[in-house]
Amino acid sequence: MKTYSFPKGFLWGGATAANQIEGGFQEGNKGLNVADVLPGGKERLNILMNAGFDFEIHQDQYYYPNHEAIDFYHRYQEDIRLFAEMGFKAFRMSIAWTRIFPNGDELEPNEDGLIFYDRVLDELHKYGIEPVVTLSHYEMPLHLVKEYGGWRSRQVVTFFERYVKAIFNRYKNKVKYWMTFNEINSALVMPINGLGFSIQKEEDKYQPTFQAYHHQFVASALAVKLCHEMIPHSQIGCMILFAPVYSFDSNPENVMYALQEEHLFNYFCADVQVRGEYPAFMKRYFKEHQIELEIQDGDLELLKEGAVDYIGFSYYMSRTEKKVKTKEEATQGNIIGGIRNPFLHASDWGWEIDPIGLRISLNKLYNRYQKPLFVVENGLGAYDKTEEDGTINDDYRIDYLCEHIKAMGEAIEDGVELMGYTSWGCIDMVSMSTGEFSKRYGFIYVDKHDDGSGTLERKKKQSFFWYKDVIASNGQNL
Hints:
This protein has one domain (11-472): TIM Barrel. The chain is built from 15 helices and twelve strands. The chain has helices spanning 18-21, 42-49, 72-86, 97-100, 111-126, 142-148, 155-171, 191-195, 206-230, 252-275, 281-288, 299-305, 355-369, 395-413, 462-472, and strands at residues 11-15, 90-94, 130-136, 177-181, 235-241, 245-247, 310-314, 319-321, 373-377, 418-424, 444-446, 458-460. It is globular. The active site is at 377 (nucleophile).
């Protein structure tokens, strides 16, 4: 079996999001955020993908899994100890904006929230685990959504800047690696999560979406500048959802369509954050969709000054496209669109499995930008079964991760500069897209179920021991 050479100091670890693991949704003076009003189950995906959501909690009608999640808020010491046992070099986490500024527009931060993350970061450092912190991960303060219209409002840039200053000032000696907005490009299909609003049925979606994006780009650039000024020894990156787009066949019409889709979804946000300017291909797109951005004096200069240091990205699947497609051809589980690829198998949730696509992604990104890359999400959501003796044999997860790690090894041989790999959902948590607990990604099983029942007991899966060996051997033992 071929072995791969990963760089010395490679950041092996796992990734999570505050809203999907913490729980304690009203403890420590935390305010409500967007994730707190999203119910679990199929209804969540309908809300994410369709118009007209009211951003209210209907406790008599729905179950809200993020309210307790897996109770990391009270169990972080136990969980971090398990991460350390696996040998994690890094742990990707996010800070809940509403723990620091409960409404989002306060003048002073909430000390209870700051203390909580002090404790989490100190616990990670106790075991020599490097925190990789996302500033905003799908949990915008609900007050900013209701009172300001989310990122539609330029005022939100000021509120975000205040939040970032408070975070950087507090944790400047505890965090070396930062990212601004999680999967920023995902708002092209799910604006609720990233931009904090739902397109109304009678409303043209293009103008508000791209104006909100401009505000977010300005906010990201401000965060980068602040990071460089306040924590010069640290690095700060963007974070995108990357899915290479294949043409269904060699028909030039389909090839051109796939290229346009890849430009818009994979490269638009990355170009602005990495190169510091709007890409040329968006000029035609803005013209064709009658989009006129309100750009203030100094914004374009700020985007240049606020270019990121590295590119963090998630990789779960590739996407296959043709210009004209039928409903029958569409993939069932792939929320970013496309048609079924006859050469790929799919997960329990219909996400097509394509390890070579990760190597393709790494090559495309590195050759386009020449910036260090960091795979900060990758994993398999699957149904796990606990055997009578208590073991959880998730060989399917090991196979999935093994093939994707091999693809990273090949990309490194191709010349790609890769900083690290944090597998998504290193511990079972609430699924973002469906709000389910049964969609499990972790090396650590959590006894929590879709109806809210369960003891929250943690158990090591077979993949726990496999990944421990991978890390200990720096990717030699796969």
